[in-house]
UniProtKB/TrEMBL annotation, chains A, B:
Its EC number is 2.7.-.-. It holds the Pfam family MeaB. GO terms for molecular function: GTP binding; GTPase activity; kinase activity. Belongs to the SIMIBI class G3E GTPase family. ArgK/MeaB subfamily. One of its GO terms (cellular component) is cytoplasm. Keywords: Kinase, Transferase. Gene3D superfamilies: 1.10.287.130, 1.20.5.170, P-loop containing nucleotide triphosphate hydrolases (3.40.50.300). This is LAO/AO transport system kinase. It comes from Rubricella aquisinus.
């Protein structure tokens, strides 16, 4: 095992294999790996200029891989280095995520300025959050200018990704008529930009019309008092023809530059860190509670009584909590 | 202080003042009161036939007080005893809730078959949930056939009330055109029935049209696989003229009888109790964590470091949790 400082140096020097191994390390839930991961994260230094962390989601079949490839190559052409992380909280599903999709992003995956990391095969949402945040930090330490965090359209994971990125892109397909494709309102609400893909060929006019519908929906849905006029916004793009990608990037950086100038960018990151701190505490309390000697059996017994109404939820909770507090003092 | 068994007996015998005092007791957060409240809740016996717990919410200005008065009197005319509890999680707002609205429900509040309990003035949502659940139990023990739990339209409190009732009624006003009045989708999703009030006079045809719009929205929004065909449903009512109230009640009891026959009614209550058991544990863990000696100072220091990025959220959480686990519990 290399010293954390050495691994940190290698990552900061641009060593891809060191970065990959480090991400594998933060993905592990083994106690000794967690300790090493924490030591590594303490050792890495963040760059003076922060990477732009961009969340990205899209409905199935919208052409997300094609979009990421085209968008990534456009960024590289602008001399930006791009990391792509995938978040797939459900191990069962494979479609929609870039899990194993490196082959579908052939050009991008071979570009030396890009780094693509598929999501690991097994995971829970809680673990995914921690792992993804840590992988973002590592990519940022490795000097990438843009960290794209891609997720599948399952709702909860979008919110999670939005809570760890600086802006959120939603990629949607052209829709016939005025239907909003069953896009969850909660997801619309977190989007800083909606891009309607496939604005090419026969679908071009539909895509333009759909964009207008979404733009209208965005105006109704939300006001973010601190953002400049016209955000969140919707634009048509064509990933296959490369149209609109530069414009989307300009729009996005205009928003982020504004937020940086206003101090909102840093404030958001501080709030996100605080949020995750609290989430980690809650998760840690839960796991310590469940792991305390004797608590699990108590829980099963009490839950059965609660179900039949033999005990009130609060009485049962009191008993379980007392068992935990006594078990805890025994350990200390 | 009376023995819990005596208070329980008085409540079960229909003593209104005993019920009111008992609800005041469960509303208190004082430790000794909580202990007494728990003893009381252990002592009361639930009736063989459960009360129907009905959640109710509505947009401001929809005529909720008028509706509750008319609906309650209709139930009384059907020889049912009705308790009305109000949940107002925000102490600041007064409009919308029946807080202090007994005077606006003049006839109902004077009926011996009805019991109206305004929400207390100060509260947090967590405390409100426990208190309301316990007040529902007390009203059920007191032999009320229907317990109406009214809340204001703030989103979170509706979900909370839906998680402690057997059915949820949403009262809405007639709207011009096809706009869904900005009713939050999450609230639509928990409604078993939408009643469009003010289906009288000039607004009658608008109310009927609005009802059709909501009925369409409900069909799109949700399928509850266990419910009979046609639920959730939307109907027009006129609280001032008394139209549609009987029909709404028949619709509601048809649904609940179906659920009882299918075993879904009991299953839902068991799931709700389990849910609140888990919530109480989470809340209890949080409060014990915050109250542990030395943890509060640690938290403040760590949170400041997390904000500046000097420590990762997980490292900080680990430190705070270790402090908690090692803190000598004053209680143990």
């Amino acid at each position: 095992m290399q010293a954390p400082e050495e691994i940190a140096k290698a990552i900061q020097a641009g060593d891809r294999r060191a970065l990959s191994r480090a991400i594998t390390l933060v993905e592990s839930t083994r106690a000794d790996h967690r300790a090493q991961a924490r030591a590594l994260l303490r050792a890495v230094e963040m760059p003076g200029k922060p990477a732009l962390r961009i969340g990205l989601s899209g409905t199935p079949g919208v052409g997300k891989s094609t979009f990421i490839e085209a968008f990534g190559l456009m960024l590289i052409a602008r001399e930006l280095r791009v990391a792509v992380l995938a978040v797939d909280p459900s191990s069962a599903r494979s479609g929609g995520s870039i899990l194993g999709d490196k082959t579908r992003m052939d050009l991008l995956s071979r570009a030396p300025e890009a780094y693509i990391r598929p999501s690991p095969s097994r995971s829970t949402l809680g673990g995914v959050a921690r792992r993804t945040r840590e992988a973002i930090l590592l990519c940022e330490a490795a000097g990438f200018d843009v960290v794209l965090v891609e997720t599948v359209g399952v709702g909860q994971s979008e919110t999670m990704v939005a809570d760890m990125t600086d802006a959120f892109l939603l990629l949607l397909a052209p829709a016939g008529g005025d239907e909003l494709q069953g896009v969850k309102r909660g997801i619309m609400e977190i989007a800083d930009m909606i891009l309607v893909n496939k604005a090419d060929g026969d679908l071009k006019s539909t895509a333009v019309r759909t964009t207008a519908d979404y733009a209208g929906a965005l105006r109704l849905l939300r006001k973010r008092p601190h953002d400049p006029e016209g955000y969140p916004r919707a634009k048509p793009v064509s990933a296959t023809e490369g149209h609109g990608l530069e414009e989307a990037w300009v729009d996005l950086t205009t928003l982020l530059n504004w937020r940086q100038a206003q101090g909102i960018f840093d404030q958001r990151r501080a709030e996100q860190a605080t949020y995750w701190f609290r989430q980690e505490i809650e998760e840690g309390l839960r796991s310590r509670f469940r792991a305390a000697p004797g608590v699990a059996q108590q829980l099963a017994r009490l839950e059965a009584q609660v179900k039949t109404g033999d005990i009130t939820p609060e009485d049962a909770a009191e008993q379980a909590l007392e068992a935990f507090m006594h078990a805890k003092s025994g350990l200390a």
